[in-house]
Amino acid sequence: MPNFHTEHFDTLAYPSTFGETTFLYEARSQRGNILIMASMGGEPILIRIHPKKEGGFLVKGDKATRPTQASFLQKVLIDFRDASNAKEIFSNIEPKKFLHVKPSAYLKEIGFFAHSFQPEREIWIEIGFGSGRHLLHQAKKNPHIQFIGLEIHKPSIEQVLKQCELQCIENILVVDYDARLFMEFLSSNRVGRIFVHFPVPWDKKPHRRVFSASFIEEALRVLHVKGTLELRTDSPLYFEFTFSQMMQLSKAEVHVKKNAELEITSKYEDRWLKMEKDIYDVVLTNEIHSEEIERLGTLNFEQNVDFSKIAHAFKEELLRGDGFFVHFEELFEINAKSGLIRLSFGANERNEKCYICIEEGKVSYLPNAILATKSNLAAHTLIKEWFDGICH
Question: In which residues is S-adenosyl-L-methionine bound (predicted)?
Answer without folding.
Answer: 126, 151, 178
